[in-house]
Amino acid sequence: MKIKALLAISSLLGAPLAAYAQPVTGFYVDLGLGTNIVQKTTYNVPAEPGNSGKFFFNPDYAGVFGGGYGFGNGLRVQLDGNFYRNSAHKFTSNRGFSAGMWGGVNRYGFMANVFYDLPVKFVVQPYVGAGIGYQWEKFLHVRDAGGDNLGGTGGSFSYDLIAGAAYDVPVVPGLAVTAEYRFSQLVQTHGAYHDVTPFLSNNKVDVGQEASHTLLLGLRYQLFNAPAAVAPAPAPMPVAAPAPAPAKTYLVFFDWDKAVLTPRATQIIAEAAADSKTQNVTTLNVSGYTDTSGTVVYNQGLSERRAKAVAAKLVDDGVPAAEIEIHAYGETHLLVPTGPNVREPQNRRVEIVLN
Description:
Helix content is 14%, strand content 48%. By secondary structure, the protein is mainly beta. The protein has 2 domains: 2-222, Porin, CATH 2.40.160; 248-354, CATH 3.30.1330.60. A hairpin with a 7-residue loop joins β6 and β7 (125-144). It starts with a helix and ends with a strand.
């Protein structure tokens, strides 16, 4: 049942389970929504020795929006803006009592993060990250049944630790679904909160270092490097016929990240064009491929450009365009099996098959 469920999910997302996720290359934007859980936080009233305790907050909503750049080798840099909301729950006092609280706290700011996409062969891309930034925290009429009412804004430098995973959505090139956990810590005591009731005589209240756990689901989209994908055509199925002539194959190789024909490539294409005229050929299948360096989306477009370059030269050599079928397979069907991000000359090719 588990296998059937995985296959059903893969079908809905538009990709086979065998497709490996790829590191991010180029500029991208990122949006995540979820919830924020704040750990119990200490407080202290400097003007009243011994008047200290802890604040407790309920989980509430959170949002993070960012933009970044991926270097294609797993490393990414990203600048985030965030907004976290938590409602007040209760406080406890070192004087031996506790009480419920109402109101809420808004936290917002920015973080500069560095991410690393882990080099694993799987349908999702796990990643880790860390960063530093600055956060503001605003108390919005946080009060208790006794009439104490806190309000004000304080700020602190902060850091975060991040772990997550991304799934590339093949039906939308450049789009990925993300799931992420963030631990963040405000490293300073912020003291911009004042009680506005007579009970504490407008005393300042210092709030201690705050730690929180954030869970996010989101979308990430790569910009500028998501060319229109060409749907891979299935391999030609053999047709039963009496004593069929074997299909003849010609291999045309390319330099890394190029779709320009070399002198040797033009010779091979000319030979294929000449043979197609002397044999009983009805179709010339022209199929483009790449090695595994670069992203899946980029390689799909590169394989298409290579196939089109070979087809154009066949037409120049006298082959009718109607007899040519163009296919683009990207980094699939490797001639020499390799891992991801490997520059293999034998895999940078176009195959011409005379049928």
